[in-house]
Specification:
This protein has helices at residues 51-63, 130-139; strands spanning 2-6, 14-23, 26-32, 42-44, 65-79, 91-103, 111-117. The chain is an alpha+beta fold.
Length: 143
């Protein structure tokens, strides 16, 4: 699994949005109903959707965030087979950072629960991708 970072990419290449999030100085992670691991909020871009709108929609759907500030970090790509890419070819996404100040009381998605953690988890859904995204956001001064 190879993860690369870019300052920009052609908009049409961006298929995913991933949002590293914090609330009350704690990391925000989701737990999917069908998995026992933690993941950063994010997901697929819908047809005709602006990538920023994808990020906002996924953040709300997966965490229940209703009041937040969000900003782009960089473009990332992943080469190799994983849960969302069975061909293994290079796929691109946009990485965002969000500060969440308010959540809905109930989730209405595939996520079972949202966690606010003092430290990063050890049980990742995407262990070869998501820690690298967080490292890059730190390197770029977002965390």
């Amino acid at each position: 699994m190879e993860v690369k970072f870019y300052d920009a990419a052609e908009d049409a290449l961006l298929k995913f949005a991933v949002i590293i999030s914090k609330s009350d100085d704690k990391w925000v992670f989701c737990k999917h109903k069908e998995r026992n691991t933690f993941e950063v909020p994010g997901g697929h871009r819908e047809h005709g959707e602006a990538i920023l709108d994808t990020a906002k929609r996924e953040l709300h759907e997966e965490t229940g965030a209703v009041d937040f500030k969000i900003e782009p970090v960089c473009v990332y790509s992943v080469t190799g087979r994983n849960r969302v890419n069975d061909t293994g070819e290079e796929t691109y996404g946009m990485l965002y950072y969000a500060e969440i100040s308010e959540f809905e009381t109930e989730l209405h998605s595939e996520m079972e629960k949202v966690f606010k953690l003092d430290t990063l988890p050890t049980e990742w859904t995407y262990p070869f991708i998501q820690p690298k995204l967080i490292q890059e956001a730190k390197r770029r001064g977002f965390l």
